[in-house]
Write a structure and sequence with these properties.
It is found in: Cytoplasm. The protein has seven helices and ten strands. Helix content is 33%, strand content 17%. The chain has a five-stranded parallel beta sheet. Helix 3 crosses helix 4 and helix 6 packs across helix 7. The longest helix is centred in the last third of the chain and has 19 residues.
Length: 248
């Protein structure tokens, strides 16, 4: 996968994208990440990339020219641009499904905004607009790092065990089940016996039930779009009963 990032602060990406799993993925040649300082493409003598908005108003807007020319340069090197993503509060909210969708692309280009906003004409070069959530960041750099991390880890051979990604929270619409490692008992806290039983069918059933329980208790909103089986409906009823009894 080829990833290009257009940013005024390319140095921000040095640590997060060159260490840990993302760094190893680049070393293996699974992904290549290039960061372009679009200030290098301004034709302004003072190297300004922003200006006041027509009609007045607070703040400064990123100009179209530097970003257009930076995109032209990126697409000259990579004629198949894939998705061009604008980080913007008005965009589609990022989640695991979006990460999966992006992981199937061969080329992603991220435009990291700054200042008050964008010249609207920049959106004509964009295929997707994405937001991390209903809050405002100083710029698009941190959001881009999060999206890249969530996306690249889904690529084949990035994780040591590819099953790790398929078992993550949200991968099947539920939160992940509780997990334990050695020792079997620590300060009086014991690992559930079923996990040490060697009975894989019972372990799988326990994990599914606990995954559903954790989702029911912590993120019940996720269950609105989750299709429950008959067994899962029965478990939900048991969770509700436990919840009612605990309040007494």
């Amino acid at each position: 996968m080829q990833i290009d990032i257009l940013s005024l602060f390319p140095e921000m990406f040095n640590g997060p994208l060159t260490t840990s799993m993302i760094g190893k993925a680049q070393e293996k040649g699974i992904v290549n990440i290039d960061v372009t300082d679009f200030r290098d493409y301004t034709t302004n003598k003072q190297h300004h990339v922003d200006d006041t908005p027509y009609g007045g108003g607070a703040g400064m807007l990123l100009q179209a020219q530097p970003i257009f020319d930076a995109l032209d340069a990126v697409q000259e090197k990579h004629p198949t641009p894939g998705k061009v993503i604008l980080l913007d509060p008005a965009g589609k909210k990022f989640d695991q499904n979006v990460a999966i969708e992006l992981s199937n692309e061969e080329h992603l280009t991220f435009i990291c905004g700054h200042y008050e906003g964008y010249d609207e004409r920049i959106r004509t070069r964009v295929t997707d607009e994405i937001s991390l959530g209903d809050y405002i960041l100083t710029g698009g750099e941190l959001a881009t790092m999060v999206i890249i991390d969530a996306t690249v880890r889904l690529l084949p051979n990035v994780l040591g065990n590819q099953e790790s990604a398929s078992g993550d929270s949200f991968s099947d619409g539920l939160l992940e089940y509780p997990q334990y490692t050695r020792p079997a008992e620590f300060r009086g806290l014991k690992v559930p016996e079923v996990l040490m039983s060697g009975n894989h069918q019972k372990i799988a059933e326990w994990r599914k039930r606990e995954s559903l329980r954790r989702t029911f208790l912590r993120r019940p909103d996720l269950l609105k779009n989750y299709s429950l089986t008959g067994q899962e409906k029965q478990w939900i009823n048991e969770f509700k009963l436990d919840q009612e009894q605990s309040k007494k």
